Amino acid sequence: MVELKTDTSIDAMHAAGRIVGRALTAVREAARVGVSLLELDEVAREVLREAGATSPFLGYRPSFAPTPFPAVICASVNDAIVHGIPTGYRLRDGDLLSVDCGAELDGWAGDSAISFTVGRPRPADLRLIETAERALAAGIEAAVAGNRIGDIAHAVGRVCRTAGYGIPQGFGGHGVGRRMHEDPEVPNEGRPGRGLPLRPGMVLAIEPMLIAGGKDGYHEAADGWTLRTNDGSRAAHVEHTVAVTESGPRILTARP
């Protein structure tokens, strides 16, 4: 069931979303060559603590997961697409890092992700990330009342496919509200004019995931969480929580 949020509820979600934005900004600023993924997780934990927020990631265990998630961020390096568990791995020059983070505040959730490079960037990685951001912007632009879920999916997918990138099937965005994951699902590829109609009060996480090699194949790593590209090529993941309003899409997780 899709819950339509009131203006007051959307404002409360915006408060949670601002904390997510601050956490992601702090993580990006701390991410340097030699810094470990566990250290970045601690950076995000501190932002949440200072804000009086909790993490919807920590202890989360969906049906596919063998163990509860042990961190407050997902940290996915290079060929990891999403759901990377922070470890003692220390960032290397040229790494591509995708970081996903959530926050819960006063009973409402926010969810967002960024991708960026560490040290000297590869031009191909910069193109991949820029395309992911353009796909996200296109999806947000389509999140208007009167459109349908398929319009968002088509907008995201068209940008990705036109640039020659792969899209991991079965993974995409979702509703957000009292919980981090709610109805409806928001695919990263689809047909325009199809799917659930968009109405004011719907709040959606739109999250493109791109595979540089152009193929869609991925596999689950031994940890039971991390998804990696089959061809070993790099991946990028970006995300915002967005409210559908009478005046157009409202980004609730904008970063400072």
UniProtKB/TrEMBL annotation:
The record's free-text note on cofactor binding: Binds 2 divalent metal cations per subunit. Has a high-affinity and a low affinity metal-binding site. The true nature of the physiological cofactor is under debate. The enzyme is active with cobalt, zinc, manganese or divalent iron ions. Most likely, methionine aminopeptidases function as mononuclear Fe(2+)-metalloproteases under physiological conditions, and the catalytically relevant metal-binding site has been assigned to the histidine-containing high-affinity site.
GO MF entry, a single one: aminopeptidase activity
Annotated a divalent metal cation 1 binding sites: D100, D111, E239
EC code(s) of this entry: 3.4.11.18
Gene expressing this chain: map_1
Residues reported in the UniProt entry to bind a divalent metal cation 2: D111, H174, E207, E239
Annotated function: Removes the N-terminal methionine from nascent proteins. The N-terminal methionine is often cleaved when the second residue in the primary sequence is small and uncharged (Met-Ala-, Cys, Gly, Pro, Ser, Thr, or Val). Requires deformylation of the N(alpha)-formylated initiator methionine before it can be hydrolyzed.
Record-linked Gene3D superfamilies: Creatinase/methionine aminopeptidase superfamily
NCBIfam families in the cross-refs: met_pdase_I
Assembly, per entry: Monomer.
Stored Pfam families: Peptidase_M24 (PF00557)
Domain Peptidase M24: 12-246
UniProt-recorded name of the protein: Methionine aminopeptidase
Binding annotation for substrate: H83, H181
Cofactors, names only: Co(2+); Zn(2+); Mn(2+); Fe(2+)
